[in-house]
């Protein structure tokens, strides 16, 4: 398995992995399901976003992004999604680890690697904990949720992960 830059021509494939409103909400906080492929294709075009695919023997298996925030000195892992056919096999953990490694290697000046997850996304919690992330304390979480559309659980990559 390897992490590679996202090819926008695969946007319809990635979009198909979250067909229900509930899955879309958990993946990218949108309400329409599925997310139109042209929207997925456009996400990686922003200067502060790097989009990636986890590929298994040439087949896309998972999608995720790095959101670069130089002002805050952080990289946020975002829009993490595993192909339903591969769920339950550790691909979410693998994607998270590889994205975190990529963030640290490519952006060493951005010291904090974080992510946000919905409180009821238990599978996500397990995958991110297994990848070396830890929940932030309640005070930090409250501060980071200021202005957010929902109350997320925030996690940071531990220094020794």
Task: Note down, in words, how this protein is organized.
It is a single chain. The protein is α+β, with helices and mostly antiparallel strands. The protein contains 6 helices and 7 strands. The chain has helices at 11-16, 21-28, 37-43, 91-106, 122-130, 138-145; strands at residues 2-5, 49-56, 59-69, 74-82, 112-117, 133-135, 153-157. The chain has a 7-stranded mixed beta sheet, with helices on both faces. Helix 4 (91-106) crosses helix 5.
Poorly predicted spans: none
In this structure, how is the largest beta sheet organized?
7 strands, mixed
Which structural class matches the secondary elements? alpha+beta
Portion of residues in beta strands equals: 25-35%
Number of helices: 6
Which sequence of strands runs across the widest sheet? 1-2-3-4-5-7-6
Helix share, percent = 25-40%
Number of strands: 7
What is the succession of H and E elements? EHHHEEEHEHEHE
Mean pLDDT: 95
**What is the C-alpha radius of gyration, as a whole number of Å?**
15 Å
Query: Overall 3D geometry?
Result: globular
Distance between the termini: 20 Å
TL;DR?
With 161 residues, the chain is an alpha+beta fold. The protein is built from six helices and seven strands; from the N terminus they run βαααβββαβαβαβ.
Write the layout of secondary structure elements.
Elements: E1 2-5, H1 11-16, H2 21-28, H3 37-43, E2 49-56, E3 59-69, E4 74-82, H4 91-106, E5 112-117, H5 122-130, E6 133-135, H6 138-145, E7 153-157
Parallel strand pairs: 4-5
Antiparallel strand pairs: 1-2, 2-3, 3-4, 5-7, 6-7
Helix pairs in contact: 4-5
């Amino acid at each position: 398995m390897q992490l590679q830059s996202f090819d926008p021509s695969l946007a319809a494939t990635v979009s198909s992995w979250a067909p229900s409103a509930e899955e879309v909400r958990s993946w990218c906080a949108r309400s329409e399901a599925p997310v139109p492929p042209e929207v997925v294709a456009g996400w990686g075009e922003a200067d502060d976003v790097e989009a990636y695919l986890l590929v298994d023997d040439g087949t896309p298996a998972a999608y995720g992004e790095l959101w670069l925030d130089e002002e805050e000195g952080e990289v946020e892992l975002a829009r993490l999604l595993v192909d339903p056919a591969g769920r339950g096999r550790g691909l979410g953990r693998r994607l998270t680890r590889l994205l975190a490694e990529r963030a640290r290697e490519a952006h060493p000046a951005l010291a904090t690697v974080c992510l946000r997850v919905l409180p009821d996304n238990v599978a996500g919690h397990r995958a991110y904990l297994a990848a070396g992330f830890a929940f932030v304390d309640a005070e930090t979480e409250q501060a980071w949720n200021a202005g957010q559309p929902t109350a997320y659980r925030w996690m940071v990559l531990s220094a020794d992960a």
